[in-house]
Protein 1
Amino acid sequence: MTARVLDGVATAAAVKDELRARVAALRERGAAPGLGTLLVGDDPASASYVRGKHRDCAEVGIASIEATLPADASQADVAAAIAALNADPRVTGFLVQLPLPPGIDERACLELVDPAKDADGLHPTNLGRLVLGVDGPIASPLPCTPAGIVELLARHGVPLEGAHVAVIGRGLTVGRPLGLLLTRRGIDATVTLCHSRTPDLAARVREADVVVAAVGRPGLVRADWVRPGAAVLDVGITRGPSVPGSSKVRLLGDVDPAVDAVAGWRSPVPGGVGPMTRVMLLANVVAMAEAALRP
Ligand SMILES: Nc1nc(=O)c2c([nH]1)NC[C@@H]1CN(c3ccc(C(=O)N[C@@H](CCC(=O)O)C(=O)O)cc3)C=[N+]21
């Protein structure tokens, strides 16, 4: 067997086409959506992700508002920048790029974001709505990577209802909210949420119809862990050594490429979950701008 590709680039492009039409409709009603970003410090990977998000916005007609602070910004500086984005009428949704520099309290910063402008879906109110399994009075944004994974599977016809999903990783942005999303009514997967202290991880993965690896350890998921025909989603992105004779660094996923001989589906790195994460951010911004128009 050779695994079929869960193509995040093509799927994200299809979602973008749908969003472009919704953005045009919003603009006609005088409610142009705008994405704000707050980047603190000069981590090159973070700067490159933020640039990518603004490029995506331009492609669908969403305005971009960029805020930056130096690496030595204080907690109060970050709080003031978040307050300015909360108050800016051009900004219908924004995110605080993570990770924040050492010394800044990330959780405290996320709590300062207006939940109605929380493009990442990481404010405790929105995570609470995810736990409750209901949409709030405003459209409640979903965390982008979990939402992107569900969309990627749905658009490739990979069923989740009745499926057993092994999620590896319990982080705030991927594993933990993904477990909540997959077990919602209407999605109806059965989830085993695995982490660094799970005994016999290989055995938990072997039981799964769908495997999601979100750890950041290259090659963690090996071919002999995977049930034949399973769908394997790779969320890990580790920057490896540069390609010999080129300035490009190799991006390494959490899934050993040898898995392709066993799996039914695999999402590649790059070109899988990453582009879906980015497009779900845009989807949140559009949905929040639409919600703001409703009486
Ligand atoms: N507040 C906040 N929200 C985030 O959503 C957030 C964040 N902070 N901090 C960092 C992580 C990481 N993340 C990625 C999104 C897209 C790709 C992506 O598109 N990757 C390309 C490769 C791009 C490359 O790294 O060269 C791909 O997989 O094809 C990667 C990583 C969002 N994150």
Protein 2
Amino acid sequence: MKKVDVVGAVLVNENDEILCALRSQAMSLPGMWEFPGGKIEAGESPQDALRREIKEELGIEITVGELIADVTHEYPAVIVRLLTYYARMINSEVVPIAAEHEKLEWLGRDELAKLEWAPADIPTVERIYRV
Ligand SMILES: Nc1nc2c([nH]c(=O)n2[C@H]2C[C@H](O)[C@@H](COP(=O)(O)OP(=O)(O)OP(=O)(O)O)O2)c(=O)[nH]1
């Protein structure tokens, strides 16, 4: 089966809220929430891929921090290895705009469990969730 290496950003703002992104009908896994990011290209480090994808998808510059989870999940058509990293916006005054996602939402850590997450994201959500 096809295997892809994917990075996702757990972007945290000044209120300790986390940016959650809803996959659109044009994407695979439509209607599921994820951490913005995408596939790592040949020759790219995970951090480089994440900075590039976040610029493309949200129009913002980030700094990439600590690794949160390294999860391999087998979907029906693809095996995804998802690496998630904490990230911060370089300029907190710029507003992220969804170029591809249906919707973006900043949520508190205690609110994350109410969303329907892509299965590969569950270990990350469990790690950052705070009741
Ligand atoms: N970006 C991102 N992708 C995720 C997450 N969780 C998860 O299972 N995925 C999956 C969905 C896709 O199969 C793949 C990411 O590829 P992508 O974001 O470049 O997706 P895409 O729609 O361009 O690709 P495709 O699946 O339509 O080929 O990883 C996540 O938190 N962030």
